[in-house]
């Protein structure tokens, strides 16, 4: 936790409600994703301005591949454009971009864009932005187990710290989910063991900087005991 300002060191957000927002406004579901990406841009900048050190956005789950071909293709085009244009600009803002998830499931050109933006921003230190793409918490834990087994470590030497070192990102202090649902949907399962949670009724496209401010103010009032 960022004790000086009462802020979470690591903030995770589950972006939920794009399609329902579009339906509520009598718009095509794809328009919900376009509007949702505009919200992504504004919230990233707001989090950086507030000195959040790690921001993880749950953008596309392992289950989302099962959506219609039209919707998946549209999302892939958003990822292409964002990785090549928008997220590349963060190199100038001292933000490190890290893609967490099953990168090998994406088309080769998207994988190359992921690799490029990660390489170009790897030394930036103002904030780390984790984009969870084709992400699932169980898949992450399975991947960590495989790494540990391949390392040849003695089973008796495996500790919680061993597992943590092989995960895709660190423990998360606050998890926000928009859209009114109250579940994790596989988001940072290991890392959220002692997280604070906030479930917001607003759909992601209408989530604003003011809503982020309210969430952070709520977090600052909570007492985190970690079982003590």
**Total of helices:** 7
Order of helices and strands: EHHEHEHEHHEEH
Main sheet: strand order: 3-4-2-1-5-6
Going by helix content, strand content and strand pairing, the class is alpha/beta
Helix content: 40-55%
Largest sheet: 6 strands, parallel
CATH class: Alpha Beta
Question: What are the SSEs and their pairings?
Answer:
Elements: E1 10-14, H1 18-24, H2 29-49, E2 54-61, H3 69-86, E3 95-100, H4 108-121, E4 127-135, H5 137-151, H6 160-165, E5 174-177, E6 196-199, H7 209-220
Parallel strand pairs: 1-2, 1-5, 2-4, 3-4, 5-6
Helix pairs in contact: 1-2, 2-3, 3-4
Pick out its properties.
228 residues, alpha/beta, Undecaprenyl pyrophosphate synthetase, 6-stranded parallel sheet, 7 helices, 6 strands, 16% strand, globular
In short:
The chain has 228 residues and is of the alpha/beta class. Helix content is 41%, strand content 16%. The chain is built from seven helices and six strands; from the N terminus they run βααβαβαβααββα.
Task: Note down, in words, how this protein is organized.
The two termini are 17 Å apart. A 6-stranded parallel beta sheet has the order 3-4-2-1-5-6, with helices on both faces. The chain has a single domain, classed as 3-Layer(aba) Sandwich (Undecaprenyl pyrophosphate synthetase). It has 228 residues and is α/β, with parallel strands linked by helices. Helix content is 41%, strand content 16%.
């Amino acid at each position: 936790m960022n004790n000086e300002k009462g802020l979470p060191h690591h903030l995770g957000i589950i972006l939920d409600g794009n399609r329902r927002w579009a339906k509520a406004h009598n718009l095509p579901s794809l328009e919900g994703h376009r509007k949702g990406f505009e919200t992504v841009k504004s919230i990233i900048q707001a989090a950086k301005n507030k000195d959040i050190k790690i921001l993880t956005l749950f953008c596309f789950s392992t289950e989302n591949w099962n959506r219609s071909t039209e919707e998946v293709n549209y999302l892939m085009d958003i990822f292409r454009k964002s990785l090549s244009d928008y997220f590349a600009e963060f190199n100038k803002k001292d933000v490190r971009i890290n893609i967490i998830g099953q990168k090998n499931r994406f088309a080769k050109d998207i994988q190359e864009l992921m690799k490029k933006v990660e390489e170009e921003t790897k030394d930036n230190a103002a904030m780390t932005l984790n984009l969870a793409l084709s992400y699932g918490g169980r898949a992450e834990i399975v991947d960590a187990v495989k790494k540990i087994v391949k390392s040849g470590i003695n089973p008796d030497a495996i500790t919680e710290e061993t597992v943590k070192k092989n995960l895709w990102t660190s423990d998360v202090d606050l998890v926000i989910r928009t859209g009114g649902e109250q579940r994790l949907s596989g988001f940072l399962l290991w890392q959220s063991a002692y997280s604070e949670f906030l479930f917001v009724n607003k759909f992601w496209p209408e989530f604003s900087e003011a809503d982020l401010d309210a969430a952070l103010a709520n977090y600052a009032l909570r007492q985190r005991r970690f079982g003590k």
